[in-house]
Design goal:
Blueprint: E1 5-9, H1 30-39, E2 42-46, E3 61-70, E4 77-83, E5 86-91, E6 98-102, E7 109-114, E8 121-127, E9 130-135, E10 140-145, E11 151-156, E12 164-166, E13 171-174, E14 179-183, E15 190-195, E16 197-199, E17 206-208, E18 212-218, E19 221-226, E20 231-235, E21 242-247, H2 254-258, E22 268-274, E23 279-284, E24 289-296
Antiparallel strand pairs: 1-2, 2-3, 3-24, 4-5, 5-6, 6-7, 8-9, 9-10, 10-11, 12-13, 13-14, 14-15, 16-17, 18-19, 19-20, 20-21, 22-23, 23-24
Length: 300
C-alpha cells in the first residue's frame, strides 16, 4: 500500500491517507494551475506513512511547485543530473542515445555527444568532474568529462544497467530489480548491495520493490523512479527500507494520459536535485514539460 501527493493549505497537515489520483490538472492549464497554487500558498505534500526509518530528511516533506519548463519531446530521458546551473541529460534508444548539456529554463540543448548506435544509453551520475553513463544490456559504463563531454574512460559490469546516482562516496546503480549496488567510482568494483523492500499495510508482510529505474541522491536518501508507474520511492540507503512514496499521477502530460497506448513508454523518469536551492527537477520520457519543485523540509 502506498501513500502519495495531497493538495492542502499551508496551515493544514495530512498524513497516512490513501493514495490520491487527482486528474483535475489538465494540459495547457497545468502551468497556470501550478503557479496559482504557489501564489495562493498551497503546497503539494509528500505524505508518507510512519515507518520509523530516519535519514537526513523527516518522513513528512513537501514539494512546492515552483515552475514548469519546456522539455524536448525527442528526449527518451534515462538520466538527469543538476550541476552549477546546467542539466545533464542522458537519452536512450539504439541509434538515438545521447549525452547532453541542457539549459533548464529553455530546454535548449547547448552541447551533446552521440553514443555509438550499438549502445542503449541509460542512467547518469556526476562524481567530481566526471559523468558516468550506463548502458542497458551492453554491460559498459562510459565516463565523460563534464565540461567537454569528451570520453575519458569506461568500465565493464555484470547484468543490466538502469539508473545511477552518486552519494558523495559511492556510485549507486539500479538494474530493474529490487537490488541497488554501491560501486567504487575509481574502479567500478562492487562494495555492497541492498535489497529495497516495503511493508504491505494490510498484511504486514514485506515485499521487494522491483523495477527501480532512474535514481537521485537527496539529503541522505535515494529517490527512485519505478518503471512503468507514476511513483517515486524514497529509500533508506543502509538497509533498503522504503521511507515513503510520492505519487506524480497529476503531473503526467494530458496527451499521454489521454492515449496510454501511444505513450506506453513515455513514463515518468528523470529526477535531478539542486542542493543549493532545494529545487527538484522532474520529467519523463518524451515529455514536453519538466517540472521544478521546491523541497520544503519542516522544522523538527
Amino acid at each position: 500500500m502506498q501513500n502519495g501527493f495531497f493538495l492542502f493549505p499551508v496551515f493544514l497537515f495530512f498524513c497516512t491517507l490513501p493514495r490520491c489520483r487527482n486528474k483535475a490538472a489538465k494540459g495547457g492549464m497545468m502551468t497556470r494551475f501550478l503557479m496559482m497554487m504557489a501564489a495562493g500558498g498551497l503546497l503539494w505534500g509528500a505524505c508518507v506513512r510512519n515507518t520509523g526509518i530516519r535519514a537526513e530528511l523527516p518522513e513528512q516533506i513537501t514539494l512546492r511547485p515552483a515552475a514548469s519548463y519546456p522539455h524536448d519531446t525527442g528526449a527518451y530521458t534515462q538520466g538527469l543530473v543538476w550541476d552549477d546551473g546546467i542539466l545533464y541529460e542522458s537519452t536512450g534508444q539504439y541509434g538515438q542515445s545521447t549525452l547532453r548539456h541542457v539549459n533548464p529554463r529553455s530546454g535548449t540543448v547547448s552541447a551533446h555527444v552521440t553514443v555509438p548506435p550499438q549502445f542503449f544509453a541509460e542512467g547518469l551520475a556526476l562524481a567530481g568532474d566526471s559523468l558516468y553513463l550506463l548502458t542497458w544490456r551492453e554491460k559498459t559504463c562510459f565516463v565523460f568529462d563534464k565540461k567537454t563531454l569528451q570520453k575519458t574512460g569506461q568500465f565493464p559490469y555484470n547484468g543490466e544497467g538502469w539508473g545511477l546516482t552518486f552519494d558523495g562516496q559511492n556510485l549507486i546503480m539500479s538494474d530493474g530489480t529490487s537490488t541497488l549496488r554501491f560501486l567504487d567510482p575509481k574502479t567500478f568494483k562492487l562494495k555492497r548491495k541492498i535489497e529495497v523492500s516495503d511493508k504491505n499495510r494490510k498484511t504486514k508482510k514485506t515485499y521487494p520493490v522491483r523495477n527501480l529505474n532512474e535514481l537521485e541522491w537527496i539529503h541522505g536518501e535515494i529517490w527512485a523512479n519505478v518503471w512503468q508507474t507514476t511513483q517515486i520511492v524514497r529509500i533508506e540507503p543502509n538497509k533498503g527500507t522504503v521511507i515513503g512514496w510520492i505519487d506524480m499521477t497529476a503531473f503526467v502530460p494530458e496527451k499521454i494520459r489521454r492515449d496510454p497506448a501511444a505513450g506506453r513508454d513515455s513514463v515518468l523518469n528523470g529526477i535531478a536535485f539542486d542542493p543549493k536551492t532545494g529545487h527538484v527537477y522532474i520529467t519523463g520520457k518524451n515529455w514536453d514539460v519538466m517540472y521544478c519543485f521546491k523541497l520544503i523540509v519542516p522544522e523538527q
